[in-house]
Specification:
Blueprint lengths: L19 H17 L2 E3 L2 E3 L1 H13 L3 H22 L8 H7 L3 H19 L12 H22 L1 H4 L3 H17 L5 H10 L2 H13 L5 H11 L4 H11 L5 H19 L30 H14 L4 H36 L2 H5 L1 H9 L5 H4 L12 H7 L4 H13 L7 H7 L6 H26 L1
Antiparallel strand pairs: 1-2
């Protein structure tokens, strides 16, 4: 696939040491408040980032669906016409080359997703692609929220990554993160951001740090494949879909334990653990700030944050880079997500394909005495397509234990291709489809026994 880089605006490195402390404190505090601070609204816990996406949804209103369709059509049309346009004066515009000069496979996914969306909007084409459990759900319940999350995160996530917050937190927790996960302490911010916002935001933050030379290829790949889990509000939605909401606290504690164990294993075993210790385009290394024996970790963290803040962008270049990143995400990912998720939902709910593929899993579950093994077996593998799929399979099961486990798989398997996989494959990380499939299998083998134990003890 291709590497997408945001053109560096002039003035990208502004600031002086004297201004470093406020340049660290003000943007970082705002970013932490937006992404990490829990607040209670109408009797429910949420975060300001969620309120921002809700406000965007209200602002766009009925125009959101046409905007989504327009992004898909522009992204597909640009990729389709670029071989002709690149021969004109437009071909010398670097930004357009980055937006539309994509690998043929990405171009095909853009076109396919746009065709699915047009068929849904006009009510034409095969009915199975427009059914309530296929194209309609994908367009409304997956692509629309993704548009809002990517639009907001493109402008806001730099506040977490570019002005010293990661260096500050990383210095405080570097020792346990190194011991548990073989990762620098700054990865704790990536992990926390995905837990409270979304898995997509976690991937975007990590790949952005990799592009800036903060992580090696191995570190970034391990972080993405370990900590970019779904948010707490989405986890609650999963339990509602699967019918285990009454056991939410026990379920979430089990999922958290399973994810920690999976992260420790993925960091040591499997394809992403063997990625090279190489920085993007020769950048780096940027080690964790050293904490001298008997010294203050807090002071060392502040010093590291100030050094990073000096390199942070001024407001004008920051907004220019964020705008390009937003356009690139919206044009490049929405149509492929529509293509992958719609095709996946058709295969899962309207063909026997996954029933056949899941027979060995169902047989193994039956031998182990897992309840409703034949029906539940499909739920163990469909999570590779979309994170909702195991929970949707759980809806049709009677066993509380089976529903508990499948709901947990929706969150802890992590590697799903409708959104997460698209982000990873489109990033500059040296990650392949086979890497992601093997990591999905590895995580499933680790988390499934933990989820089963939790279900038997707590459900």
């Amino acid at each position: 696939m291709r590497t997408t880089e945001v053109p560096a605006p002039a003035g990208a490195q502004a600031g002086t040491p004297r201004a470093a402390l406020p340049r660290f404190v003000l943007p970082s505090a705002f970013g932490a408040a937006v992404f990490l601070a829990p607040i209670r609204v109408d009797g429910a816990w949420t975060i300001p980032f969620s309120l921002i996406t809700d406000a965007l949804a209200a602002l766009f209103g009925d125009a959101l669906a046409p905007l989504l369709l327009g992004c898909m059509l522009l992204g597909a049309g640009g990729a389709l016409l670029w071989p002709l346009l690149r021969r004109t004066a437009l071909g010398r515009v670097r930004g357009l080359e980055l937006l539309f000069g994509v690998h043929w496979l990405w171009g095909a996914l853009r076109v396919l997703g746009a065709l699915y969306a047009v068929g849904l909007a006009l009510g034409v084409g095969p009915e199975v692609l427009r059914a309530p459990d296929t194209g309609e759900t994908v367009f409304r319940d997956i692509c629309m929220p993704v548009l809002l999350v990517y639009l907001a995160s493109a402008y806001l996530m730099g506040l977490l990554t570019d002005y010293g917050l990661m260096e500050f937190v990383g210095t405080l927790v570097q020792r346990p993160f190194r011991w548990l996960f073989r990762l620098p302490g700054r990865a704790a911010v990536d992990a926390l951001a995905s837990f409270v916002s979304s898995s997509g935001v976690g991937v975007l933050i990590t790949t952005r740090q990799y592009e800036q030379g903060i992580y090696t290829a191995r570190e970034a790949a391990v972080i993405c494949c370990s900590f970019s889990v779904v948010s707490l509000p989405f986890a609650l939605l999963i339990t509602r879909v699967a019918g285990v909401e009454a056991s939410f606290l026990a379920w979430y504690g089990t999922v958290a334990l399973a994810c920690v164990l999976a992260a420790a294993v993925v960091a040591r075993v499997g394809p992403v653990a063997r990625k090279p210790e190489r920085f993007h385009q020769g950048a780096g290394p940027v080690p964790d700030a050293p904490v001298e024996a008997g010294g203050s970790a807090f002071r060392a963290g502040v010093d590291a944050a100030r050094r990073r803040a000096v390199r942070g962008m001024a407001p004008g270049p920051y907004l220019a880079a964020a705008t390009f990143r937003a356009v690139d995400l919206l044009l490049g990912l929405l149509a492929p997500i529509m293509a992958i998720a719609t095709t996946a939902s058709v295969l899962v709910f309207h063909t026997p394909v996954f029933d056949v593929l899941a027979r060995p899993v169902a047989l193994g579950l039956g031998l182990l005495g897992f309840p409703e093994a034949e029906a539940a077996g499909k739920g163990f593998i469909v999570g590779a397509l979309d994170q909702f799929m195991p929970a949707l399979v759980a809806q049709g099961l009677e066993s509380q234990v089976a529903r508990f486990v499948l709901a947990g798989l929706s969150v802890s398997q992590l590697i799903y291709f409708s959104e997460y996989g698209m982000l990873m494959l489109r990033s500059p990380l040296p990650v392949t489809v086979l890497d992601l499939l093997l990591t999905f299998l590895l995580r499933t083998l680790v988390v499934a026994p933990v989820l089963v134990a939790g279900a038997l003890l707590l459900a």
